[in-house]
């Protein structure tokens, strides 16, 4: 099974306000997008398990014209809070790189 890092030419995460993180999976071609953007490995339940949040708080935004899947989830603590470890959420994408896609 391929991993996210093998089917996406770019994966990034960023702050989406003080309470949210957004991850962009930019697939390497239409074939990879069509095959993996709807993968159970990228479902709300799977993302919730990886990031330790509730599945019903995950938002998935497929953007087929750009071959992108946007994933948004709530931060565990507000941006800049005492528990903050990644102020700009720029490192959060790394948890998805080795996710195997089905």
Report the mean per-residue pLDDT as an integer.
Answer: 94
**Mass-distribution shape:** globular
Helix/strand class: alpha+beta
Q: What's the number of extended β-strand segments?
A: 4
Question: What topology does this entry show?
Answer:
Blueprint: H1 4-7, E1 8-15, E2 20-27, H2 30-36, H3 44-51, E3 59-63, E4 68-74
Antiparallel strand pairs: 1-2, 2-4, 3-4
Give the gist of this structure.
The chain is an alpha+beta fold.
Plain-language structure description:
It is a single chain. The protein has helices spanning 4-7, 30-36, 44-51, and strands at 8-15, 20-27, 59-63, 68-74. It is globular and about 45 Å long. The chain has a single domain, classed as 2-Layer Sandwich (Alpha-Beta Plaits). With 102 residues, the protein is α+β, with helices and mostly antiparallel strands. It has a 4-stranded antiparallel β-sheet with strand order 1-2-4-3. It contains 3 helices and 4 strands, in the order H-E-E-H-H-E-E. Helices cover 19% and strands 27% of the residues.
